[in-house]
Amino acid sequence: MGQLIIKVANESGHEIVSRINRSTVYYDFVSTKPDVCIDFSAPAGTVKLCSIAAECKIPILVGTTGFTNEDLRTIEDFAKVIPILVSSNFSIGIHVLRKLVREAAQSLPKDFGIEIVEKHHTKKKDAPSGTALAILSDIKSIKNDSIELFGRHGQSEYRSGEIGIHAIRGGDVVGEHDVYFFGQGERLEIAHQATNREIFARGALFIAEKFYKINTPKLYNLEEVMG
Prior knowledge:
Layout: H1 2-12, H2 29-32, E1 37-39, H3 43-56, E2 60-62, H4 69-78, E3 83-86, H5 92-107, E4 113-120, H6 130-142, E5 147-150, E6 162-169, E7 175-183, E8 186-194, H7 198-211, E9 218-220, H8 222-226
Parallel strand pairs: 1-2, 2-3, 3-9, 4-6, 5-6
Antiparallel strand pairs: 4-7, 7-8
Helix pairs in contact: 1-7, 3-4, 5-6
């Protein structure tokens, strides 16, 4: 993702003033003075980067997933000092999918069953994906009495109010998310397929162009910035 962000940024006329990887020891944000940091790393790296960004008062976009609750609490503390946007997926298409899913959850009758299926490449470390969990959170904000069920096995039949979540890993799948709403005699499917990882870099830079202008320290979500 770092290489893709550099590629897309150069194509878009943005200037990369600092590059950070696992071997970086000294974060020179004082002299480079970035307008915004974009992070696609790992939880430990994100927490460290947020700490340095907070010291230098630089807003940061976080596209990393797999955080523990403790990680998130630490990031929330840094968000009291600087604006931090955390999103499991910077695809603009996923942003629209989530809006459609919320609308469907709000509009369809309560007896419609809901299943979330996500597919990713074999190297992805977290399952279900952060995006699938974000979609689940969207649905539960509307159907707050629902119960999530991770995978299905054995002989237990569907129970009213369940939301099934299923993770599939295979090959080089960039990312696919499907949300099913099952009624009696009809089925609604809302789906998104990523065929190139470059969409996440383009989306992150698109959001960064808006986000660096925000001065109020807070933990933001994508919807608040996109509108």
